[in-house]
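[09:14] KT: can someone run the structure on this one? pasting the chain below
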Amino acid sequence: MSKTRLLYNSDTWDAGTVWASAETGDLVLSNVQDDQIGKVWQAPLYSGGWLSPTATWDLGAPTAITCLGIFNHNLTASATIRLQANATNSWTSPSYSVYMTDTQAISADADSVALPRYVFFLNQTYRWWRLTFSDTGNPDQYLQIGRIKAGSYYELTRNMNDGFSMQHVDPSEGRPAGGQFTPFRVRNRYRRCSLDFDLVDNTQRRKIEAVFSRVGNHKPLVVCVDPDTYPSEQSMYCRLTTPLSTVYDVVNVYSQGTLVFEEITE
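[09:31] RB: done, structure tokens below
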């Protein structure tokens, strides 16, 4: 069984040269390389017929990609996402080509509403990468994506303790009054995940310290607490909101307290 995975370094992906088959105004593809998830890429899905917009990356050199996450998207649960990779900018017969959604459907809630996040695990090393999106019947008739983050994940050697929590938060703003319907400024809901780590070894202690050195409490990362069963549903584009505190239990055995990750949805 896989343990919690962290994608905290996507520097090469974010520095790649990108171009799209279509963009709407200033809602350009490079927006998905920005940590501001509210800055989106938008491309038409319909223009007298259904379209399949593409997004292409040149990473400059062969780069290992083991995790790819798509966040703040408006895809429906029946959308198709194709991922291709190659040594050159040629897509007639690329070395790697997979319909991600054939292997792993876009996650939906119990009411069949698509969740605005999609996380896919793979193990490929190429310079050139391309995503193709098809979503016939999308009521918006356009594709919109806020963040695409990819790189090599780190999988914990010792997982979090049992009894971790996932809190769902509604930050909508208003003043509720008893017996009345009060108008609210509706905002995107988010989750807050609390993980405890006890009895970790020296290798994991040092790696988590390296993760904290890179992201601190301000830089986003991707956390997946159940990569096998719920790779998208139980993933978060988030930031760490707590300090990193290490307790030296005995020689080469440590506890790192409670780490709280807060999802970024706006």
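[09:33] KT: thanks! Residues 95 and 256 are 42 Å apart (CA to CA).
[09:34] RB: yep, looked fine to me
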